[in-house]
Design brief:
globular, five-stranded parallel β-sheet, binds 2-acetamido-2-deoxy-beta-D-glucopyranose, six-stranded parallel β-sheet, alpha/beta, 18 helices, about 625 residues, 15 strands
Length: about 625
């Protein structure tokens, strides 16, 4: 496949982001960069002088339910945009070529007032400190299984099983006789086949990174995020502050004012308590890199030059790639979280006014899986997992009680919309949605307004709204996705999507393949052509509505992140599903390598389409959504 260079970058035809008429992306960020477009300036709330370098931070305030922040000053990232190049993923080490032409744009720092740091429970004491010495040095030549405790060949005696309740059997026998033994992950595959090993095939190795790559960011949240009250949101292991039941909107416990961008912390807290950790990377089904890529970028996203924005990412990559386990598979068994949208990590060029970091473009990261809140339809190295919502149950029971509650609710409204218009995004259909909602007697509108009183920012207010409605409209946010879609489902409200990029091609690990099972799709073009949303929704037979709602309610567990301390007993949550999928992916790849199968070559440009393919379908076959993800 042809490799595109920056000069001939294709532009996606349909992205709803902010590009001006010429498709040029607005300049942003950097030292004092600011958007000159009216759309943005109407939202310009104030500027602060951040530092002695007199860096101006332009801040745009959206009060939108897609923001998970209940305090005054909820803000959403704004106007991200895409233009992409695409190139083959396959093993390419390719720094310059295939340069992505996406540009994001200006996002706001997440909050205004600098608040007092709160005691944070999760920050200081990484359980990882329990690890035995990090596996050897980078000088190891052969990609052989590590011997943590010293010892011979394939003997697994070195495996530290102190976290493993039931793994005493397994994996020690006769690797040398098996054909797979030539591969550094042979023991991991053998473990997967060992029925006697409860954790067989599920071991995760957590790399030992210096705390400045992770927990220090939480511990020092006040200093690290000086212009925000991020500490409120990094508290409680990334869940944020606990909320009261808000007059019965929530349950008494398990509800938090969770920021949409704290997935890095939440994930790490869960991994620390994952039941099948190993200190032996050669036994691991996957390697977790505890780099808080999203949080790290967030604090350098505004007002810092590209050198600064990339510095820690480059450092992390140097460390990771120097480790012996990197050579097992060139990092293709490694994963990490970058709890923001993918566009923040795919900087187009290296000017200080270009948006974001270039983390995802680094050759090493091309081989890894980055878990993000929104993935790229044109790249294979990221995968979207649900935005965190306000609910963090501590038991199956808590989930069931919530499901019962939302199943029983009276829903007086047929549909609902909570959000703000996007005057700066020419293709946005939000004005049409707001107009239709206003004109309908069965639609409840929560129009979010700019200003310090953030009407939509309170989880209690928008969750109450979603609980009173059968359907909720989920147009694109500032980029394809919205946290609101998950709030909506959590409330047992059936989402109505207008672009497949908002959910269907994103959260394919978590949501049903058949989108009609749990959601309604009305194309943006239909909305622009004045299709009546109310009529469309009324046409759905009540029995079908019931069935869809039941599906949505059954999805509650997979769109929540449970408490790390107790997790759920039998039910899988968003974290569990993500781990299962990553492990499945790595294991499949390993088995293919062992069996000498040619690896399936995937085209980056179709990365959105692979999960949608039905039996026998080829990726080149036409799809009704081709135009929505096409390049012009
Ligand atoms: C390693 O193997 C050698 C010979 O194969 C043996 O003499 C030695 O005791 C073994 N060491 C350990 C730690 O098993
Ligand atoms: C980038 O900014 C940092 C401070 O954040 C400064 O020390 C450094 O010199 C800058 N680099 C360039 C190339 O401007
Ligand atoms: C990515 O993986 C491939 C295949 O394992 C390997 O050849 C390549 O060196 C890896 N890239 C990096 C940067 O390690
Ligand atoms: C949709 O309706 C609006 C207001 O009724 C009207 O101005 C517009 O021309 C209509 N558009 C189409 C495509 O019919």
């Amino acid at each position: 496949m042809k490799r595109h260079n920056a000069a001939e970058l294709p532009v996606p035809a349909s992205f709803g982001g902010v590009q001006d008429e010429k498709g040029k992306v607005e300049k942003v960020g950097g030292g004092g960069g600011r958007q000159g477009k009216g759309s943005c300036c109407s939202r310009l709330w104030f500027m602060v002088v951040l530092s002695a370098t007199v860096t101006m931070l332009v801040r745009y305030y959206y009060y939108d339910s897609s923001v998970g922040q209940g305090v005054a000053g909820g803000v959403v990232r704004v106007d991200s945009v895409a233009r992409h190049s695409y190139h083959r993923k396959v093993n390419s080490v390719d720094r310059g070529g295939g340069r992505p032409s996406f540009s994001g744009s200006f996002s706001s720092p997440p909050n205004d007032d600098s608040k007092k740091p709160l005691a944070d429970s999760g920050g200081g004491g990484p359980l990882l400190s329990g690890h035995s010495p990090s596996p050897v040095d980078a000088s190891t030549k052969k990609p052989e299984p590590l011997q943590d405790g010293g010892g011979n060949g394939s003997v697994a005696a070195a495996v530290d099983h102190k976290w493993l309740s039931d793994s005493s059997t397994s994996t020690t026998e006769s690797d040398g006789d098996q054909p797979a033994a030539a591969h550094p992950f042979a023991r991991a595959l053998a473990a997967a086949d060992n029925k006697g090993d409860r954790c067989g095939g599920r071991y995760i190795y957590v790399q030992d990174l210096p705390p400045r790559f992770n927990t220090d960011m939480v511990k020092n949240c006040a200093a690290l995020f000086p212009w925000t009250d991020k500490c409120e949101f990094t508290a409680n292991g990334g869940f944020g502050l606990q909320m009261s039941s808000a007059g019965g909107v929530f349950q008494e416990t398990g509800w938090y004012n969770t920021d949409q961008y704290t997935m890095d912390i939440i994930f790490h807290e869960r991994i620390k308590r994952y039941e099948c950790l190993t200190v032996d990377p050669s036994l691991a089904a996957a390697v977790y890199v505890p780099f808080y890529a999203g949080l790290e970028l967030e604090r350098h996203l505004w007002g810092f030059n590209v050198t600064k924005r990339d510095a820690m990412a480059l450092e992390a990559v140097d460390i990771i790639t120097a480790r012996p386990e990197w050579r097992f598979m060139g990092g293709r068994d490694h994963f990490f979280t970058a709890g923001r949208t993918t566009w923040d990590f795919r900087r187009l060029a290296d000017g200080d006014s270009d948006w974001g970091s270039k983390l995802f473009l680094l050759p090493a990261i091309q081989n890894m899986t980055a878990l993000v809140a929104e993935s790229s339809p044109w790249h294979l190295n990221d995968a979207a997992i649900p935005f965190p919502t306000a609910f963090h149950p501590a038991s199956d029971e808590a989930v069931f009680i919530w499901q019962d509650k939302i199943r029983r609710l009276e829903r007086p409204w047929l549909f609902t919309f909570a959000g703000a218009p996007r005057p700066g995004i020419t293709k946005s259909i939000r004005n049409e949605l707001i107009a239709q909602c206003r004109a309908s007697s069965v639609c409840s509108l929560m129009q979010c307004v700019d200003g310090p009183i953030n009407k939509c920012g309170s989880p209690a207010s928008y969750m109450k709204l979603f609980q009173s409605s059968t359907f909720c409209l989920q147009p694109q946010g500032d980029s394809y996705t919205r946290k609101s879609a998950f709030d909506c489902m959590l409330a047992g409200c059936i989402p109505v999507f207008f672009h497949p990029g908002t959910a269907y091609v994103q959260y394919t690990w978590h949501l049903p393949k058949n989108h009609a099972d749990y959601s309604v799709y009305i194309s943006e073009d239909d909305v622009r052509n004045n299709v009546s949303i109310e009529e469309r929704l009324r046409q759905i037979p009540p029995a079908t509505v019931e069935r869809m709602r039941e599906t949505v309610i059954n999805l509650v567990p997979v769109v929540v992140y449970a408490q790390p301390s107790s997790k759920l007993e039998t039910v899988k949550d968003a974290f569990d599903l993500a781990i299962d999928t990553i492990i499945g992916k790595v294991t499949k790849l390993r088995r293919a390598i062992v069996e000498g199968q040619a690896e399936e070559e995937k085209l980056e440009m179709y990365s959105w389409k692979y999960p949608l393919l039905r039996e026998g379908q080829k990726v080149e076959d036409p799809h009704e959504w081709d135009p929505l993800f096409a390049f012009v």
